[in-house]
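--- STAGE predict ---
source: upstream dedup step, 1 unique chain passed
mode: sequence only
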Amino acid sequence: MTGPLSIPALLRHCAAVSIALAAAGTAQAATIAVVAPQQGPYALLGAQILRGAQAAAEPGDSIVAIDESCERKDGAAIADRAIGAGASAVVGFLCVETLTDALPRLKDKAIPAISVSVRSKILMEDAHRYGWPFFRLGPADGDEAEKLADTILSRFQNQPIALVDDGTIYGRELVSAVRQRLEAGGIKPVFADTYRPGQDQQLALVRRLAKAGAAQVLVGGDRADVAVMARDAAAEGAAMAFLGGDVMRAANRPLRLADGVQAVALPDYPALPEATEAAGLLRSSGFEPEGYTLPAYAAVQVARAALAKAQADGTPLPVAATGLPVQTVIGELSFGTDHELAENPFRLQEWRDDAFRLVGPETE
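--- STAGE serialize ---
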């Protein structure tokens, strides 16, 4: 195993999570390139990616660390390094600039690129147009709004819905996208407005929401603002619940979040049952499995599973990776024919006892 951030031997020998394959067998030792920043402002995130990939490697595997500058001009050279190292797959890719020029080279060698970060829909459209082997192990642009709208349509269909945003690009665009989906689904909000963020109190907003009869309030804003709204609603005796987006995964300060507030967000991967063993081994070796660590671990698991299937079926690796269900440290994953995750990675969660807890499916 190569790279500047070597993982202790016990991580290289940790048992791989079982792969849900029919007669796929076990892949031979794999060479996997890990493209991630090793210096500059994204070095910490790059270290998480490399760390997770190294931890997922099995005995005999070779992990080739390739520095990602996040400059478009370097993409082709990065692909050439992966090809020269004999990589079967490339994982990581924090930046769209790198991928754009790397993918045409990787296509020539049928080497799949599995990104844990890049959300660009335009890049995926280009990948489909030119046949690039790009797979996205993470959310795409629009997934957050789609999950929020689906949650409201399925769970709160008969409740008065209010939409508020903080006026930022993120908040405004998120709420606008959700509103379009809701109205297409037959839900018209009883209240919609922009609030002033960063205030010590939001009593005026809460009273207006109560007057409009809002029962569920979608907030396109940060955690601190939602905490203030939930506190003021409770003080007013207003029976309303609050729902936020992925930015709710933030520090629980300055005001603590009230129990019952919900968010559509990426899961806390280290807290998942599937991650218990891997997270424990990482921590015992002095590495906290935060950020992209476990998604990168899962990317290597997916790459190895696809390699096993490709060897068993005699198919190109990008073909083998499509539609293949794999049990990973962040749950079962599979890519559709569009090379996106078959299941939206955002999950509905509720704040209870100082942590977001996953909300299970509705019962009939």
